[in-house]
What we know:
Pfam families: FR47 (PF08445). By secondary structure, the chain is of the alpha+beta class. It is built from five helices and eleven strands, in the order H-E-E-E-H-E-E-E-H-E-E-E-H-E-H-E.
Amino acid sequence: MKHILDRPIWSALETAHADLAEGNEKARRYPPSIVPFAASADDTPESLDALENLPSRAESMILVESGPIAIPPGLAVVTEASLVQMVAERPHERLSDSRIQPLTEADAADMLDLATLTKPGPFTLRAQSLGSFWGIRNEGRLVAMAGQRMRQTGFIELSGLCTHPDFQGCGLGTLLFRFVASEIASSGDTAYLHAYAANTSAISLYKTHGFALRSEMNMRVVKRRS
């Protein structure tokens, strides 16, 4: 039986993030100004045709699924990668630390600067449209952050975890990771995340903090053929 997280983009756009969805019942995507995620409803020719017609010629889309990803003939694969999907095995106790502050639209430019520097994954000025983010500042400078991205019924993705190179090794990333996981648990949802399969150090850290491997995942970045 299929799990709701096997096709996380489609299931998010069908449930908790349906209000953000562009497209129709055959293929949907998030607004590119928020995050370039897209998915077809299934692998039928009609759905793949709808997926192919979502992006403009200048746009790329990211597809993520647990199984093989069917690519419409009119789209070309630009990048591909193997991911792992991990899910919190146990609820994280509520964590409090005065250094951690909620991030708002006023922080968007600083958040994008930090994400551009550290490359935690696709990130835009409108990332907060997906969920809450928190950060730590040092002398006014945003030096670490983490937040929430995709949502499905009962699940929230922990994402955007990054620390400025000048402050790595200080435990800020781990602190924010634990904090966001605890916030998700306190809402009654289960936290999950994605990591590159080759990033064994990050995977080991996540396991230490109560996350377990749920599935191997495939990622494809596609764009229209010229």
